[in-house]
Amino acid sequence: MKRIAAAAALALVAGCGAPPAKEEPPATQPPMGVARVTPKNGSTVQGLISFTQVGDKVRIAGQFFELYPGPHSLYIHAVGNCSSPNAASAGPVWNVPGNTDKRATGALPLLVAGTEGRAEVTTSLSTMSVGTGRPDDVIGRSVVVHADVDPDPKVEYGVPNGWLACGVIVRTEGFDIKKVL
Question: Which range of residues forms the domain containing residue 84?
Fold first, then answer.
């Protein structure tokens, strides 16, 4: 009986005057953009690539499938439009005005596909942002996979151009694959 009374008293004292338990605010997700890359020019290439703002850099991670073995250029293009059959609607490779680098802002690391046709890219770049609305923002631009190493791709409307796949970068809150598939 004494134990029950002591436990009840302890519970009463513990509950009195103690501030209510604070709920932790939900962790905010960093700004993120995702592109679902779909086939163009009769190819079967497809993939998914994400862009996540982490401090002053953008972390880029992507997986691509159905590539033929070897190296392929990967670029962000200036226009968020992949409606044309050869992806020319994506416009030229994106370059922020005033960029003094020898490489365009939209030049991403080469993809190198193995014999199984898969390639991955993982990098962090400080030359772009996600969801800022600034000229260096990737949201609303396109990602294009090129057939070969193409150091200076030109937009060619209405002709096969070796651009294998294209996807528009859209803003997403966290990574929800259902939003891009």
Answer: 32-172
Rounded Cα gap, residues 70 and 45, in angstroms = 14
| Distance in angstroms (rounded) separating the CA atoms of residues 59 and 138 | 12
What is the number of other CB atoms lying within 10 angstroms of the CB of residue 124? Answer: 13
The answer to whether the CB of 178 falls within 8 A of the CB of 45 is no
Query: Which tens digit of pLDDT belongs to each residue from 93-126?
Result: 999 988 888 889 999 999 999 999 999 999 999 9
Q: What is the CATH number of the domain that holds 51?
A: 2.60.40.200
> How many domains does the chain divide into?
1
pTM above 0.85, yes or no: no
Among 52, 53, 74, 54, smallest CA distance to 63 is for: 74
